[in-house]
Amino acid sequence: MPKLPVVSGAEAVRALERLGFAVARQRGSHIVLRRGSSGCVVPSHRELKTGTLSGILKQAGVSVDEFMEALARPLLRPMNHDSALVNSP
């Protein structure tokens, strides 16, 4: 199991979105994500302590390896077809 990196709350949310989680809501500095019946709460701090990140991953049911892979790959968002028309020659 690799060592957990120091990441921001926003980076953690992006990685979890890559794993199929979606932002359900935000209240103050806490972001609630859902994937089916599982979910987790991520504080939107500049740096998440490794213990906090470990707890988030346990709550989400995500392994450290899965999280590390998700951090490394780009987030695929659906293309907005209207913007494609604006940029075409």
Automatic annotation (TrEMBL):
SUPFAM superfamilies associated with the record: YcfA/nrd intein domain (SSF54786)
Family matches, as InterPro entries: HicA_mRNA_interferase, HicA_sf
Keyword Hydrolase in annotation: yes
GO molecular function: endonuclease activity; hydrolase activity; mRNA binding
Sorted UniProt keywords: Endonuclease, Hydrolase, Nuclease, RNA-binding, Stress response, Toxin-antitoxin system
Keyword Hydrolase on entry: yes
Family indicated by similarity: Belongs to the HicA mRNA interferase family.
Name the UniProt record assigns to this protein: Predicted RNA binding protein YcfA, dsRBD-like fold, HicA-like mRNA interferase family
Species: Candidatus Kentrum eta
